[in-house]
Design goal:
The protein is mainly alpha-helical and 493 residues long. It has helices spanning 3-15, 22-34, 38-47, 53-65, 69-78, 84-96, 100-111, 120-133, 136-148, 155-167, 171-179, 186-198, 202-214, 221-234, 237-251, 257-269, 273-282, 289-302, 305-316, 324-336, 340-352, 383-399, 415-423, 426-437, 454-466, and strands at residues 361-366, 369-374, 444-448, 471-474, 479-483, 486-487.
């Protein structure tokens, strides 16, 4: 890993007249690509008198690896011949920059090329894309493709399948993949524990964790993070605290800030706010915004405005760009308590710091196509129909017991205006679209970028009851499975 020595060797290549050698040129392109010196890599490529598929692929993968997908696409389109390394570079590159729909699109294009078969890296990448989008139908198809083409389910592919099924809301399918592995490793166990965690199945995650220990598989820091999250989402305070304090002595995993964050979240959710705050003030590293947000979330759940004010004073001393989530949470907490002068003060501060909250966004897959809805969406091609359908749905939901919860609307509006403000949340629009577009009785699966609010949670419980539909929502922190008017989280999220 020495760019300087690489440049010295490149100088010797030129001095000794080997720059025209195809294999040496390919190695030079690859070397510069590794060090993100893409201008130098491209210059070598342009000056080569002879190029092969490896020359093109080395340059393409260099751009893709460093997130320059526009340049990578341009090179890919010009390539005279493509191999599965070229396709791997493009697909994994799109996944790396969060462009999951395009990754799946390129995978479909690749399948039309009879000369190329998906390798392990491609399959892991596209399964990851399906996991992020909640694209269960496409994930199922890829699993069948693996079986049909007799591709060996390596540890990486099995781990990716467990992750995909878990994040698409099919924890039962994830368990079947996990149970079918003859010799499980730390990655398989970690993926299964994390999957159970986001489904709120804390006790089941603990069982898999203890099974892992019984099979003498040593947990790593990601495993510990998964099991601590599982305890947090299920209110298992004693079990989670015990694992947190045993991590280093039993398994040699020194707690990092993420582990402290999980432990603090566990205590905060369970109402041990003072104890959690004490840990924050005595932890061996400087707390980040995630730690403060976890505490603020505990304050929101238990409606403790005094401690929230104390916390936000700490948050305010941090970098303004890191304050985003903390300021929004405090604003919502003040709104829920009707302290409008507090809301005004925080919003003014956010304006001065140019802090904006992330807009709510939900994705839903219908007939193999992923649709995106934003809060108060106006861009979806069928948005007028969707809004009309949503009005009809909310009227029926009220008959099923739904009463709009506007506690966290951060403006001093009248009740009718508040109800309108929460009516157009992205997951409600996605549900309306699903009820318009899918047969009665089929499950509805939605992925959301933010935490589900109390009003949407109440609405989806009622909708699942009056329409007789299972509605599965994966928000920023966990899964909610709404069925018959109840939610799998037992209102603990």
């Amino acid at each position: 890993m020495s760019l300087v020595y690489g440049e010295i060797v490149h100088g010797l290549v030129v001095k000794n007249g080997y720059e025209s050698n195809l294999y040496v040129g390919n190695a030079v392109i690859n070397m510069y690509s590794v060090f993100k010196k893409m201008q130098d890599a491209h210059k070598v490529f342009d000056e080569m008198c002879e190029r092969d598929v490896f020359s093109w692929t080395s340059l393409l993968c260099g751009y893709a690896k460093h997130g320059e997908m526009g340049r990578a696409c341009a090179i890919f389109d010009q390539m005279p011949v493509r191999n599965n390394v070229s396709w791997t570079g493009m697909i994994s590159g799109f996944v790396g920059v969060g462009r999951y729909v395009e990754a799946l699109s390129y995978f479909r294009d690749m399948l039309y090329d009879d000369k190329v078969q998906a390798n392990e890296a491609i399959l892991v990448s596209v399964l990851s894309a399906c996991a992020h989008l909640g694209a269960l139908d496409q994930g199922n198809w890829i699993h069948m493709y693996i079986g049909k083409n007799r591709i060996s389910e390596s540890s990486n592919i099995s781990t990716a399948l467990i992750d995909m099924y878990s994040k698409c809301g099919r924890i039962d399918s994830a368990s079947r993949v996990f149970n079918g592995i003859s010799r499980r490793d730390v990655h398989n166990f970690t993926s299964m524990i994390s999957g159970l965690s986001i489904h709120g199945l804390g006790k089941e995650a603990l069982c898999v964790f203890y099974q892992m220990l019984a099979e003498n598989v040593k947990p790593n820091e990601v495993t510990c993070l998964g099991v601590l999250n599982a305890c947090s989402h299920s209110g298992l305070v004693e079990e989670g605290s015990s694992i947190f304090y045993d991590m280093e002595s039993l398994w040699g995993v020194a707690p990092k800030i993420e582990h402290y964050g999980c432990h603090i979240d566990l205590l905060g959710r369970a109402g041990y706010l003072e104890k959690a705050f004490k840990i924050v003030k005595t932890m061996p590293m400087k707390p980040d915004i995630v730690i403060w947000r976890s505490l603020l979330n505990g304050c929101r759940i238990h409606r403790d405005a005094n401690l929230a004010r104390c916390i936000i004073n700490h948050v305010g001393q941090m970098n303004s760009q890191e304050c985003n989530g903390g300021e929004v949470l405090l604003s919502n907490l003040y709104a829920s308590l009707g302290i409008w002068e507090g809301v005004t003060e925080v919003r003014k501060l956010m304006g001065e710091r140019r802090i904006e909250s992330d807009p709510g966004c939900s994705w839903i897959e219908v007939d193999g196509v992923v649709h995106e809805f934003r809060v108060a969406d106006k861009l979806h091609p069928r948005i007028i129909e969707v809004r009309e359908k949503l009005n009809e749905i909310l009227k029926r939901a009220r008959v099923g017991g739904y009463v709009s919860n506007t506690m966290h609307v951060s403006f001093d509006l009248n009740e009718e205006e508040k109800e309108q403000a929460v009516a157009w949340h992205s997951e409600k629009l996605a549900v309306a679209f699903a009820l318009m577009s899918t047969p009665p009785g089929t499950s509805i699966r939605i992925v959301k970028n933010l935490r589900t609010c109390e009003d949407c949670h109440l609405a989806l419980k009622a909708i699942s009851k009056v329409y007789g539909r299972e509605i599965v929502v994966r928000d920023r922190s966990r899964f909610h499975t709404f069925k018959g008017g109840d939610c799998s989280c037992n209102d603990y999220w």
